[in-house]
Amino acid sequence: AEEKAELKDRIRRLLKEKEAVLVAHYYVDPDLQDLAEETGGCVSDSLEMARFGRDHPARTLVVAGVRFMGETAKILSPEKTILMPDLEATCSLDLGCPADEFAAFCDQHPDRTVVVYANTSAAVKARADWMVTSSIGLDIVRHLHEQGKKILWAPDRHLGSYIQKQTGADMLLWQGSCIVHDEFKGVELDLLKAQYPDAKVLVHPESPANVVAQADVVGSTTQLINAAVTLPATHFIVATDNGILHKMRAAAPGKHFIEAPTAGNSATCKSCAHCPWMAMNGLKNLAEVLESGANEVWVDPAIGVQAVRAIDRMLDFAA
Ligand code: 13P
Ligand code: SF4
């Protein structure tokens, strides 16, 4: 505990000294989320992280999250220095959608508008017409569908098929998935709901269809936290990375949050729904990168200028 307090003090001091700002995702270590908030940075979903990083005047951003979040920050602000506690922090969706294979897929379907999820590499975004996050993907695809566009969607198949069902859009789906959300189980969730008949079910749309189908609210991490605060219920079953519970409990004191069942967490594993890459962000490596300036995110500028168009389209739409 002593060491933790010292590390936190060191980080507070270094952020000031280096005039850096900390931008964190809700799935990272609670200490990092709290530090981001208390030092004038932000903790939020992917859309807000992008917007906050772009608009903040600091010359150095430290992104506590995964690689695509750091890259998005760099693409939006090439003049800023973007640091990450661990550059190896990736995402199964990003890994499952290599840029060359994706480009070949797009080439086969030139008649389709290419919409990619934020959880992709800069090179994949460079090939896209639109980038979307979970908070706004549904609205953007609905808008494109109303314009008569046919869509090529990548990489998350669960989010893609959820949006497809909701909008009726013609969507060709890449078959990627998130290793964390893919583990939520519909049958077990149904049993858990029977134990808590008054509980509201909050689901991230990277979850499988039979889990999404049981949701009271489907949304991004920020949208799920807002639902936890505003819905008049005492119990909530939460199907997303359990890193979110820290903020939910703080934002909705007195309410009870129960983790949705995964394949492994019934008896043996209490925290299966936790992203191993988000977990690579800690106090120690955060302090170290602030001190040394190592782990700078680099995006090929030629790719950056291509990729920024798809991100800007989303941010303009959201504005
Ligand atoms: P959001 O916070 O945008 O909902 O994203 C979830 C996610 O999987 C990030 O890794
Ligand atoms: Fe990727 Fe899933 Fe981890 Fe989010 S939780 S970074 S989607 S693997």
UniProtKB/TrEMBL annotation:
Catalytic activity, reaction form: iminosuccinate + dihydroxyacetone phosphate = quinolinate + phosphate + 2 H2O + H(+)
Sites where the protein binds iminosuccinate: 25, 46, 117-119, 134, 204-206, 221
This protein's UniProt keywords: 4Fe-4S, Cytoplasm, Iron, Iron-sulfur, Metal-binding, Pyridine nucleotide biosynthesis, Transferase
Gene Ontology molecular function: transferase activity
Principal EC category: transferase
Enzyme Commission identifier(s): 2.5.1.72
Entry's localization field: Cytoplasm
Cofactor note text: Binds 1 [4Fe-4S] cluster per subunit.
Pathway: Cofactor biosynthesis; NAD(+) biosynthesis; quinolinate from iminoaspartate: step 1/1
Cofactor(s) annotated in UniProt: [4Fe-4S] cluster
Binding positions ([4Fe-4S] cluster): 91, 178, 275
Highest rank taxon of the organism: Bacteria
Main location: cytoplasm
Family, as annotated: Belongs to the quinolinate synthase family. Type 1 subfamily.
Function: Catalyzes the condensation of iminoaspartate with dihydroxyacetone phosphate to form quinolinate.
Name this protein carries in UniProt: Quinolinate synthase
